[in-house]
Design brief:
It is built from two helices and three strands. With about 60 residues, the protein is α+β, with helices and mostly antiparallel strands. It binds iron/sulfur cluster (SF4).
């Protein structure tokens, strides 16, 4: 499982890294700095939580 964040859509709400801190990291301005992450085994639920709670729908989940 992989997640990809569209930085052009992210507005820096910070919900992803607040709710799923083991997957997402914020930058100094509050935007999501994790643009392409391989989700470690066991953290799929946390990744999904981040995806579902992004108000801008900037995060895409890729199931490979
Ligand atoms: S929740 Fe969405 S809009 Fe907010 S920082 Fe994360 S990716 Fe960006």
């Amino acid at each position: 499982m992989r997640i990809v964040v569209d930085a052009s859509v992210c507005t820096g709400h910070g919900r992803c890294y607040s709710l799923a801190p083991e997957i997402f990291v914020g930058d100094d301005d509050g935007y999501c700095a994790s643009v392409d992450v391989d989700v470690p085994s066991g953290l799929e639920a946390q990744a999904l939580k981040g995806v579902r709670n992004c108000p801008e729908r900037a995060i895409r989940l890729i199931d490979d």
